[in-house]
Amino acid sequence: MTADSSPTSAPNAEPSGRKPAAIIAVGVAFALVFAAIGLRQTTPPPSGLEGKMAPTFALPLLTATPQPEPERVTVPSKSRPTLLHFWGPSCAPCVEHAPVVAKLHAEGVKSGAYDVVTVTAEDVPDVRAFMREKKHTYPVLYDADGRAHGKYFVSAIPVDFIIDKSGAVLRELRGPRDIDELKELLVQAAK
């Protein structure tokens, strides 16, 4: 036998042209799987609380500066409708939604028609810095152990719960919302 110096294909090699198509097909399959997983993670299932009594909790009120004995606030108040807003300053959609929450809070304080209460589990110095920087004065409750988040099945933020004056959850809303939509729901919650 003589050695042949001409280039040869390795045994079992794919003919040229098929290998890139196979790689592309596998890549597309992985992309679809990861997109489905990502879609599921960005749109968590609803809590199932609509139409049920809102879970009650009491948390310390954060202020722009630390207090030796922070006030504890109980939610819901059951005296008037409440917008219960779960958020965090590291969440871009939450930051986008913050001016709406601030405006609703200011209008609720002025009219006395409803309450706005926010809850965060994020780092206290970051929350305080955000409050000072944006000059937001709405109540921020600190959920250190995540218990309130758990009672409301919060797995992604921002999420709002409209609680009617009897203490039942009227609506659950995920993601930033239009102020007019929230006002209309708070009016419905007052009936």
Task: Explain what the structure shows.
The structure is a single chain. The chain has 191 residues and is α/β, with parallel strands linked by helices. 38% of the residues lie in helices and 18% in strands. The chain has five helices and seven strands. Strands 2-1-5-4-3-6-7 form a seven-stranded mixed beta sheet. Helix 2 (92-111) links the parallel strand 3 and strand 4. The protein is globular and about 40 Å long. The model is unreliable at 1-15 and 33-41 (pLDDT under 50).
Quick recap:
This protein is α/β, with parallel strands linked by helices and 191 residues long. It contains five helices and seven strands; from the N terminus they run αβββαβαβαββα.
Question: What are the defining features of this structure?
Answer:
about 20% strand; Glutaredoxin; alpha/beta; seven-stranded mixed beta sheet; about 190 residues; 2 domains; disordered N terminus; 7 strands; single chain; about 40% helix; 5 helices
SSE layout and pairings?
Layout: H1 18-42, E1 57-62, E2 72-75, E3 82-86, H2 92-111, E4 115-120, H3 124-134, E5 140-142, H4 147-151, E6 159-163, E7 169-174, H5 179-189
Q: How many domain regions?
A: 2
The CATH homologous superfamily of the largest domain: Glutaredoxin
The tally of strands reads 7
The proportion of residues forming helix, as a percent range, comes to: 25-40%
On the 0 to 100 scale, the average pLDDT is: 83
